Amino acid sequence: MATKENFVICRGIANDHAFGIFYGQNPLKYSFPLLLLELSSIIIISHVVRFLLKPLRQPKGGIILGPSVLSRNKKFHSYMFPDNADYVIKNLGVMGFMYFLFMAGVKMDLTLVRRVDKKHWYIALVGVLVPLIGSLSIAFMVRKSLDKELAKASSIWGVTSSLAITAFPVLYSIVKELNLVSSEIGRMALSSAVIGDVIGITGVIIFEATKQGEHRPIAALFYLISLAVFMASIMGGVRQAMLWIVRTTPEGKPVDQIYVIVILLSVMVSGFFADMFGLAIANGPLWLGLVVPDGPPLGAILVEKSETIAMVFLMPFSYMYVGMITDLYSLIDDWKPLFYMVLAGYTIKMAATLIVARFLDLTIRDSLTLSLIMSLRGEVELLLFLHWMDFQMIRQEHFTILVLLTAAVTALFTPLISILYDPTRPYMVNRRRNIQHTPPNTELHIVACIHEEENLYGLMKLLELSNPTVDSPFSVYTLHLIELVGRSNPVFIDHEIEEKKDNQSHISSIHNALKIFQETRAEFIKIHPFTAMTIRRSMYQNICELALCKHACLIIVPFHKKMTDNHARTRRIKQVFQSVSSNVLAHAPCTVGILVDRSPYPNIVNGVLRSSMHHLVVLFLGGADAREALCYADRMAGSPAISLTVIRFLPNRDDDDTEMEKKLDDGLLTWFWVKNEGNTRVVYREVVVKNGEETIAAIQAINGDCCDLWIMGRKQGINPVLLQGLSNRSEKSELGVIGDYIASMDFGSRGSILVVQQQILRGQGPASAFSWCKKWQ
């Protein structure tokens, strides 16, 4: 939001560049070398400062380069920022804010306002109206001590309304960095911020109209007419054109490059027309971004193409622009009334959000976290301060104190949020949720993750191999994970609820395939389909939350080590979702199975298992994970279409540290053998080895037999003698040392692999987990 004063015309420069220092010329007196020096210096310094102050979420070095620190030195300032270079910083800074708001508009989904829970409306309305009323009351109480321009009703409204609003673009970037996007508090804050921004846009319109109508009331009317015409053009013309682009783009294909270029250029065009009609230059890009259909294909590619150039190259100039106006040495006049008014507004907003959150049954800890998140400040507020400077509503000392308060609030609250709120805390349960301790003739609850269609057949095959029966049926909660691109708000869809609403917009080929699969096995498998759209770092939170609230005892995660045939060998391709499986293993509230599927993907889902016999091999190396894997395999062995071989690996020498694990292993294996003694399809063998090399050799010897599925524990409780000498073989892999070897191209097996990690009890009482899941009931 900037107009004429933000643009400085450069005059008096004879040439764009110097001939060289050997001709006695100073390159800093020429525009192009000066531009290159400023660009490189600002980007380097800003990113160094950003790295050092990352936990505090501070603007990237603008204040340090400004007159408060480095530019206080006149020689430094005269060389780096001479008068004829102001246009570089100011114009590029305004462009940075324009593209920042455009991207924020693209990612924002205003239709979310119609879908959010009532409690999000309560938080948003109380969090906006209470601080607005409180700030207005305090402002009119201290009105006589304010500057003449700041004491005007329109100015008071502008300041107090900005204190009451939490800008969604600011909040999202911090919530994303703290990895809270898919957490309960994160979703609540983002939804409330969208509602608050809708109210905030209305507040900005009122401010602009009243400000422009102070001297000529007719100007306010002209402003509203111009706004209506501009919005009608955006909504009626531009929006329809973008919808046409989406319709004409083939599914799965990127948007034509020419459309992307035209839209990105339209950001500047919209800013030009917005400034020409007196609507404030940054409003045009924001409204343009809001009419872009969010997500793939259009919204995603626009964010992808513009994010790097905007955030890496243009936004440092925006911070520099703010920093050049911020001057700590200007704080000598009467700035205290504004300081107290702003401080009171922040305090009232925080207290109001805290109280309404407690009223909605959030814990004190979560309520305080939410109030801190909703009080965060950032780039949008800085842009508003510049706009007020343009209106001559505030002076430099007022601008400085506002910037300092914004930086202080964010610097103080961001670390506190990290300390107060751990999104993984609800998953720390002390109840047994695993296969070993689940009674045999009870329903088994499973969460099955799906990244893409290729995961379907392997999942279906594993479910049928698991031998669901009428006495022991499966409730499978399938979770289709989609990476959030080109939009900010995460989406979690329960397809059973959507079907009751007759909403077909989220039906996909994956969902249809699962529906067909269930119809053929309705007696013993019940599929409950879900879809989660979120950023990759937060996907594990959706998985663990669903497992916790559906009382699952097993999570199945596909391992994205894609295999391709190459002369009966396999080769490794990029592990796309490695971080997802790693985080699930670290935080899951139940047992986790990592599935490496090597089955060819068929064209149909009916009749997944039609061959006469499937051979399974359990590699039992001891420990909790191995015991869990054996219990799962024991369920499979009940099927007449399954032959099972269990290989127990024993060390050639005893280890006192693993004596307890060995006793537990002996007890379970004795039970298993007694149960299956009369089953001719079950074979049990023991192999004694003295180091890891012999373990690998023994496994390689088994590989000659045709194996459809290898089952093994991941790593808990394995006797170290069995892995001695293999420490360099991916000890920290999601598959464990042995699983990683079997999945590698060196092993050469075409059988799928299931690596099991038994639930790790993390010692939180069951009450907190129960209360956290009430919203699912």
TrEMBL record:
<dbReference type="GO" id="GO:0006885">
    <property type="term" value="P:regulation of pH"/>
</dbReference>
<feature type="transmembrane region" description="Helical">
    <location>
        <begin position="187"/>
        <end position="207"/>
    </location>
</feature>
<keyword id="KW-1133">Transmembrane helix</keyword>
<feature type="transmembrane region" description="Helical">
    <location>
        <begin position="87"/>
        <end position="106"/>
    </location>
</feature>
<dbReference type="InterPro" id="IPR006153">
    <property type="entry name" value="Cation/H_exchanger_TM"/>
</dbReference>
<dbReference type="InterPro" id="IPR050794">
    <property type="entry name" value="CPA2_transporter"/>
</dbReference>
<feature type="transmembrane region" description="Helical">
    <location>
        <begin position="401"/>
        <end position="421"/>
    </location>
</feature>
<dbReference type="GO" id="GO:0015297">
    <property type="term" value="F:antiporter activity"/>
</dbReference>
<feature type="transmembrane region" description="Helical">
    <location>
        <begin position="32"/>
        <end position="53"/>
    </location>
</feature>
<keyword id="KW-0630">Potassium</keyword>
<keyword id="KW-0406">Ion transport</keyword>
<feature type="transmembrane region" description="Helical">
    <location>
        <begin position="154"/>
        <end position="175"/>
    </location>
</feature>
<dbReference type="GO" id="GO:0012505">
    <property type="term" value="C:endomembrane system"/>
</dbReference>
<keyword id="KW-0813">Transport</keyword>
<feature type="domain" description="Cation/H(+) antiporter C-terminal">
    <location>
        <begin position="617"/>
        <end position="759"/>
    </location>
</feature>
<feature type="transmembrane region" description="Helical">
    <location>
        <begin position="258"/>
        <end position="288"/>
    </location>
</feature>
<feature type="transmembrane region" description="Helical">
    <location>
        <begin position="121"/>
        <end position="142"/>
    </location>
</feature>
<dbReference type="Pfam" id="PF23256">
    <property type="entry name" value="CHX17_2nd"/>
</dbReference>
<dbReference type="InterPro" id="IPR038770">
    <property type="entry name" value="Na+/solute_symporter_sf"/>
</dbReference>
<dbReference type="InterPro" id="IPR057291">
    <property type="entry name" value="CHX17_2nd"/>
</dbReference>
<dbReference type="InterPro" id="IPR057290">
    <property type="entry name" value="CHX17_C"/>
</dbReference>
<dbReference type="GO" id="GO:0016020">
    <property type="term" value="C:membrane"/>
</dbReference>
<dbReference type="GO" id="GO:1902600">
    <property type="term" value="P:proton transmembrane transport"/>
</dbReference>
<comment type="similarity">
    <text>Belongs to the monovalent cation:proton antiporter 2 (CPA2) transporter (TC 2.A.37) family. CHX (TC 2.A.37.4) subfamily.</text>
</comment>
<feature type="transmembrane region" description="Helical">
    <location>
        <begin position="309"/>
        <end position="332"/>
    </location>
</feature>
<keyword id="KW-0633">Potassium transport</keyword>
<protein>
    <submittedName>
        <fullName>Cation/H(+) antiporter 24</fullName>
    </submittedName>
</protein>
<keyword id="KW-0812">Transmembrane</keyword>
<feature type="domain" description="Cation/H+ exchanger transmembrane">
    <location>
        <begin position="62"/>
        <end position="416"/>
    </location>
</feature>
<keyword id="KW-0472">Membrane</keyword>
<feature type="transmembrane region" description="Helical">
    <location>
        <begin position="219"/>
        <end position="238"/>
    </location>
</feature>
<feature type="domain" description="Cation/H(+) antiporter central">
    <location>
        <begin position="476"/>
        <end position="599"/>
    </location>
</feature>
<dbReference type="Pfam" id="PF23259">
    <property type="entry name" value="CHX17_C"/>
</dbReference>
<dbReference type="Pfam" id="PF00999">
    <property type="entry name" value="Na_H_Exchanger"/>
</dbReference>
<feature type="transmembrane region" description="Helical">
    <location>
        <begin position="338"/>
        <end position="360"/>
    </location>
</feature>
<dbReference type="GO" id="GO:0006813">
    <property type="term" value="P:potassium ion transport"/>
</dbReference>
